[in-house]
Amino acid sequence: KNIMANSVKQVEVDRARAEERRLKAAEKAARLADEAKKSPEDRLLAVRGIGENTLPMLYQGGYDSVEKINLENEVERIANSTGIGMKKARQLKHWVKVYLGELDESAPEPSDEDDVPPSNLSSGSSSGARMAGRE
Predict the structure, then answer these.
(1) Which of 55, 27, 29, 31 minimizes the C-alpha distance to 42?
(2) Residue 87: partners with Cβ closer than 8 Å, 6 or more residues away
(3) What is the dihedral of CA 50, 52, 58, 64, to 10 degrees?
(4) Would you say 40 and 59 are in contact if contact means Cβ atoms under 8 Å apart?
(5) 3-class DSSP state for residue 16?
């Protein structure tokens, strides 16, 4: 009797989860359909970190759509061609992926640790000095 009750509960849980997945998929489809109706500029402005100040810089670098930013594999190229810097370029690349649904909104933003030259990472450390001599 207990096994039967557990089986019924599991079926109910599975149905609820399936319905939740179906609703999420429908919401995503509706959101994407709404986004597709927006102009490329409005879509860019909908990305976190892109505002009226950043937009002209992106255009200067040839990035006139979220897709162009997303397709750019070289974050350094975004930074250099627009003048926005590496940290901002990494952040924009991250938030474009979130906007397009390729990354979850809760995914952490990329850190800017890579921007620090290696010599600055070990200032004052004797082991760092030894390591620097091995490069």
Answers:
(1) 55
(2) 112, 115
(3) 90
(4) no
(5) helix
Q: Write the CB contacts of 30 (distance below 8 Å, at least 6 apart in sequence).
A: none
- Please tell me the pTM assigned to this model: 0.62
> Cα(16)–Cα(39) distance, rounded to whole angstroms?
37
State the DSSP string of 30-47.
HHHHHHHHS-HHHHHHTS
Cα dist from 4 to 1, 8, 9, 10, 123, whole Å: 5, 6, 9, 10, 67
DSSP symbol at 131? H
What does the pLDDT average to over 31-38? 82
pLDDT, tens digit, 9 for 90 and up, residues 80-100: 999 999 999 999 999 999 998
Element (H, E) at 10: helix 2-37
Place of tokens 């991250």: 94
